[in-house]
Amino acid sequence: MTPEKLLWEGRPSFWTQWPSLLIADLALILASTLWWTGYREWAPWALALSVPFYLLAAGRRSRVLYRITDQRISIQTGSISRRVEEVAASDIRNITLTQTFIERLVGIGTVGVSTAAGESVELVLRDVPGASAVKEAVRVARLSAPKAPPPAVPND
C-alpha cells in the first residue's frame, strides 16, 4: 500500500464570514474615532467590542477542514465533537463547480463530488478559495486513484 499524497488542503474562505468581520472592523473604526476625537476613555470599550466578532469568524472557519489526497476526499467538521465524511477517489464519477457572480469576483466557489453509488452529491466543499484549482485537484485525485482489479471470470 502506497502512502497517500496530499493534493490540496484548506478551509472555507474568510469571505463567507463578512458579516462578523464587518462588525469587528466597524468597532475598530469607532475605537479609532473615539481615540482621535478626545473620547479616549471609551476607545478601549469599542476595541473590546471587536474581539468577539473576530474570534467568531476565526472559530467558524477553523471548524471545517477539507482534504484532497490521491486516494480520497474528506471533510472534517467540528471543534469539540468531530465528524469526518469521506469518499474514495476511485469512486468519484462527477465533479461540479458552482459559483455566483460575486463568488467568481472574489475567487471562491462550491465543489460537489458525487459517486456512482448515490444519485446526488455526496460531498460538498463549500466556499473554497481557488475553487477551480480545487476542482482540478479532485479530478487529478480521481484519475490517479488506484483502480480495483476487474472481477475474475471463472473458467468453465
CATH architecture of the largest domain: Roll
Main beta sheet? 4 strands, antiparallel
CATH class label of the largest domain: Mainly Beta
Q: Would you report the number of β strands?
A: 7
- Strand content range: 25-35%
H/E element order? EHHEEEEHEEH
Count helical runs: 4
Mean pLDDT: 91
Low-confidence stretches: none
Envelope shape = elongated
Strand and helix map with partners:
Elements: E1 6-10, H1 18-36, H2 43-62, E2 64-69, E3 72-77, E4 83-88, E5 92-98, H3 101-106, E6 108-115, E7 123-129, H4 131-144
Antiparallel strand pairs: 1-2, 2-3, 3-4, 5-6, 6-7
Helix pairs in contact: 1-2
Please tell me about this protein's structure.
- With 156 residues, the chain is an alpha+beta fold.
- The chain has 2 domains: 6-13 and 65-144, PH-domain like, CATH 2.30.29; 15-60.
- The chain is 38% helix and 29% strand.
- The protein has helices spanning 18-36, 43-62, 101-106, 131-144; strands at 6-10, 64-69, 72-77, 83-88, 92-98, 108-115, 123-129.
- The strands form 2 sheets. A 4-stranded antiparallel sheet has the order 1-2-3-4.
- A hairpin with a 7-residue loop joins strand 6 (108-115) and strand 7.
- The mean pLDDT is 91.
